[in-house]
Amino acid sequence: MDLLKQRKMGILPEIDIAGHAYTVDLRLNELRNVELPNKKLSLDEMVTAPNGRHYLFFYDIESRSILHASSDMVTLPTNAVLVEIPDELGLDPVGMARKYGLSDEYFLKMHPYEKAGKATLTSLDKSGLPEFVVANQKLLQQDLQDPQKITFRKSP
User: Fold this and answer.
1) What is the pLDDT of residue 75?
2) Taking CA atoms, which of 11, 39, 71, 136 is between 20 and 30 Å from 104?
3) Lowest-pLDDT range, 44-48, 146-150, 151-155?
């Protein structure tokens, strides 16, 4: 049975992220780990790439979770990569059509249904995260030199 027929019968597509298989579930707006279904990656937590056709996020390979870069990140994570995956139409055009009440074939001319894809991985040293961490370290050093800033930042 071909992939499109399987999808129309309700079999959800999968994508490989750093060697981990994820089920694409657009109805719930998430990628669900095939081996550990409680490990979910929410599409809402991902950033749209500049081209508007992909999502970007940092992925912790060990914990199988999205890694959030924040102002308190002062060390570079060791088991993480920058991940790029297609947007919803690239992941599951049939699922997108169903989400909006359209026929299953609605998006297939521009977005053919394909075999499960593989995420594009970029090492952290080429992701911009090291520079972000260095900037956070500098801010932390400035805060340590000015105790008022520490108190100000920590107050509710």
Assistant:
1) 74
2) 39
3) 151-155
One-letter identity of residue 27: R
CB 107 within 8 A of CB 89: yes
In this prediction, residue 156 carries a pLDDT of 44
At residue 21, the pLDDT reads 96
Closest CA to 111 of 86, 148, 80, 85: 86
Question: Which pTM does this prediction carry?
Answer: 0.83
List beta partners, residue 25: 30
The pLDDT score that the predictor gives to residue 113 is 87
Q: DSSP letter string over the chain?
A: --HHHHHHTTPPPEEEETTEEEEEETTTTEEEESS-TT-EEEGGGSEEPTTSSEEEEEEETTTTEEEPP-TT--S--SSEEEEEEE-HHHH-HHHHHHHTT--TTTTTTTS---S-EE-EEEEGGGTTHHHHHHHHHHHHHHHHH-HHHHHHHH--
